[in-house]
Amino acid sequence: MTIANTGIDPSYGEGALIVCDNVVRTYQSEQIEVQALQGLDLLVYPGETIAIVGASGSGKSTLLNILSGLDVPTAGQARVGEWDLLRMSAADRLVYRRDVVGFIWQQTARNLFPYLSAAENVALPMSFAGVAAGERQRRTAELLDVLGMGEKANRRPGQLSGGEQQRVAIAVALANHPQVLFADEPTGELDVATGEEVLAALRSANTHLETAVVIVTHDRAVSDQVQRTVAIRDGRTASEVVRHTHVDEQGVSAVIAREYAVLDRAGRLQLPAGYRQSLGLRGRVRLELEEDHVGVWPTERKEGGA
Ligand code: ADP
Ligand code: MG
Question: Are residues 196 and 104 in the same domain?
Answer without folding.
Answer: yes
